[in-house]
Amino acid sequence: MVNDHEHHSHEDAALSSLATLMPDGSRKWLKPKLAKGMHYHRRKLVAYGLIALFTAIPFIRIQNNPLFLLDIINRQFYVGGRLFLPSDSVLLMLLGVSFLLAVIGVTAAFGRFWCGWACPQTVYLEFVFRPIERWLERKSKIWATFLRYVFNAMISFFIANLFLSYFVGVDALKLWIFESPGEHPQAFLLVACVTGLMLFDFVYFREQMCTVVCPYARLQSVMLDRASWLIGYDRSRGEPRKHGKVKTEGAGDCIDCGKCVAVCPTGIDIRNGLQLECIACAQCVDACDDIMVRIDRPKGLIRYDMQSNFNAELQNKKPWHWRQLLRTRVVVYFSLVLVCMAAMTAIAHERNVFTSTILRGKGEPFTVDASTGLVRNLLLLRVVSRQAEPLQVMISITSEKENTSSLTWVAAENPMVIKGNARTESALFITAPSSSFSEGRLPVRVIFRDLESGHENRADFILLGPHAPESTP
Ligand code: SF4
Ligand code: SF4
User: Fold this and answer.
1) More confidently predicted of 64 and 43
2) Residue 173 falls within a domain, yes or no?
3) In this structure, which residue's CA is closest to atom 8 in ligand 1?
4) Going by fewer Cβ within 10 Å, which terminus of the chain is more open, N or C?
5) Atom number of ligand 1 nearest to Cα 302
6) Do residue 288 and residue 363 come from a single domain?
7) Which of 298, 320, 342 is where one domain is finished?
């Protein structure tokens, strides 16, 4: 029988080094076995549902707008079919804050549920790449390695294109794919690089992405508390470990079969306690439940439970109740998410259906008509639509200083016509008497009014003109 002291020295050794690191510092390649238990079948359903969803999202349109698109090149972001521009900084900030709060809230309530059940890294690795590898190994030992690379390259190419479609849109991507690389050399290079990165990640890097790179794992310790719902090993029930099916006096339920370690995709031993490498995939739960059934002991030696229950003595364990989800911390996080979302909805509802910008025209800042003394400024107006339908935006000018009737303006088109979710630029000439200028400046206000909704944008602009001659006493 292994005594407690020996157990602790094993744990200390295990915890003092990375599970995927050999004593000589080289990488320990993992080849986790598969435990097909209840959680695995549920995760499989969720994973294939998510893969279908991830694939469908770039193709879904709402009122002709993409459901979700982060078009960084054109600085246009679509969320839920609504267009957000960099000028919507408050909305984008609220969106980011709500996302962050939701992540913290879900982690406080359910631990790393996201990692094991919904993260694309886990979903594609555990339910696409690994199943294909296992299938190939069963079919052909000789061709397995070669075919594995062919399949991996094909899937990586598909995922790379899918990933890019979230940033450039499916229409642009179709052109990149179906037209000659010579016509889009930069796009071709981009697709090739992203495919290479996907191959590197899913074929070589694998669990290192979760255990070394992903910052979420490192932050989990500050997000969890004693009531968080986690995967853990019930030490008070499992220890001391004892090999063999027959239970002896004083022995725990763990028979030290090692199945929970053999199935772990990050190579850790959950019996050593909560570790940042654990992605909560529940493979160890399925593996251990299967062993418990075989040796006729209750399931749940490794299970989902509150963190406090894993540390408590057997008699002090409290059954989990959904009321745990209503603890102050979790309620505060989700209330803040709701507040942010309500603020976003109110701001989005009130915001204008277009944005407008005024630039000074190129060339001379102003011209003076010698015969009439009128000063002419050239402005460049830019209007960006935020709606799918076309807009008609009427331009008018006012001035607090000058009688509006003495100002005249001519736009290249007035009203400006802007296609749905597009931008239009138009020249505008404003003419004012030279006597209106004080120290060569005349402040005016340019009003952009959408003829249909009545939404207005007002922008102040300084017209430039000649300095008035010094007045004689
Ligand atoms: S699978 Fe269960 S019984 Fe086997 S070593 Fe892990 S905890 Fe112990
Ligand atoms: S310890 Fe269990 S839940 Fe955590 S990653 Fe390993 S198998 Fe998955």
Assistant:
1) 43
2) yes
3) 254
4) C
5) 7
6) no
7) 320
Q: Which two tokens stand for residue 225?
A: 């508390």
Query: In angstroms, what is the span from residue 261 Cα to ligand 2's centroid?
Result: 8
On the question of pLDDT at 116 being above 90, the answer is yes
| Closest listed ligand to the CA of 268 | 2
Find tokens 């450039």 and name the residue: 168
What domain range is 53 assigned to? 19-59+111-320
pLDDT of residue 1: 38
Closest ligand 1 atom to residue 253 Cα is: 3
Please, which pLDDT band fits residue 473 given cuts at 50, 70 and 90? very low
Tell me, using a 6 A CB cutoff, whether residue 431 lines ligand 2: no
Task: Give the three-class secondary structure for 20.
Answer: coil
Q: Half-sphere exposure of residue 182, counting CA atoms within 13 Å on the CB side? A: 1
Is residue 327 assigned to a domain?
Answer: no
The confidence band for 9, taking pLDDT boundaries of 50, 70 and 90, is very low
Q: Are residues 53 and 133 in the same domain?
A: yes
pLDDT value of position 234: 92
Structural element, H or E, at residue 311? helix 307-311
**C-beta 261 within 6 A of ligand 2:** no
User: How many domains are there within the chain?
Assistant: 2
Gyration radius from the chain CA atoms: 32
* pLDDT per position as a tens digit, 229-240: 899 999 989 988
Q: How far apart are CA 196 and CA 152, in angstroms?
A: 11
pLDDT score for 374: 93
Name the closest ligand to CA 33.
2
Examine the domain organization and report whether 416 and 273 are in the same domain: no
Give the position, in ligand 1's atom list, of the atom nearest the Cα of 261.
6
CATH number of the domain encompassing residue 424: 2.60.40.10
Nearby residues of 168 by Cβ (< 8 Å), 6 or more positions away = 71, 73, 176
Is 229 in the same domain as 314? yes
Same domain, 194 and 309: yes
- Say which DSSP state 181 is in: G
Question: Does the structure show a pLDDT above 60 at 261?
Answer: yes
Q: Is the pLDDT of residue 201 over 50?
A: yes
Of 132, 145, 125, which Cα lies nearest the Cα of 207?
125
Residue 68 domain flag:
no
Q: Do 222 and 277 lie in a common domain?
A: yes
121 assigned to some structural domain:
yes
| Domain-ending residue, one of 265, 294, 320 | 320
Distance between CA 410 and CA 429 in Å, rounded? 5
Residue 271, pLDDT score: 94
pLDDT reading at 196 higher than 80: yes
Q: Do 265 and 389 fall into the same domain?
A: no
pLDDT at 388 over 80: no
Ligand 2 centre and the CA of 278: distance in Å? 5
- Split at pLDDT 50, 70, 90, the class of 115 is very high
Q: CA dist 251 to 2, 298, 311, Å?
A: 10, 15, 18
